[in-house]
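In response to reviewer comment 3 from the previous cycle, which asked for concrete evidence that the modeling workflow produces usable outputs, we include below a single protein chain processed end to end. The sequence was submitted unchanged, and the resulting structure tokens are shown without manual editing.
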Amino acid sequence: MESISILEQEYFHLRFGWGNGSGCVNWAMNRLRNNEEGEDLDIILLAAASEMDDVRPIVETLLERYCGTDRLADEFIAGKFVAALRIAYLHGFETIHSLDMKLSKLYSELAYVDWLTMLSRNCEYATDISEFEVPFEKEFFYISNLWTAAESLQEFKASYSREKSNQHDVFFKTTPEI
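The workflow returned the following structure tokens.
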């Protein structure tokens, strides 16, 4: 099932509170509309779900069946989500304040992964201190470009440099003090 990654992403949004499950239902409805459900009763049940409380267990069953241990890691989906957030930010659909809430939640939910440290911090500080806006923008550019190019979590981690992220700090000095 080629479109399962779409369902994984929609389920990620549901679990993190950025969706109400309608994306999962729409995924199932599209499968039915295109006659791609393969007579899978769970896809039919998901398409018919009217209560969002019904969506979560059905999606979990589908993901377990079709992905098993090959499910996309939350960290990978989060990275792709961060890349999408930057596009929304550049188009004016997100603000530093709306990003702060999302990045802070991601950072804590992902157990404070290293690559989100400077981005989340700079975003939080930029909501109140204008000097942090440029470092935030630089780090957002850096992280989102890495995630856009990455085909896997391992590929991202091989490209990511904490030292480079640390350069996107207001307090970073390029020359030693005398």
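The chain has ten helices and no strands. We consider this sufficient to address the reviewer's concern, and the full set will be provided in the supplementary archive.
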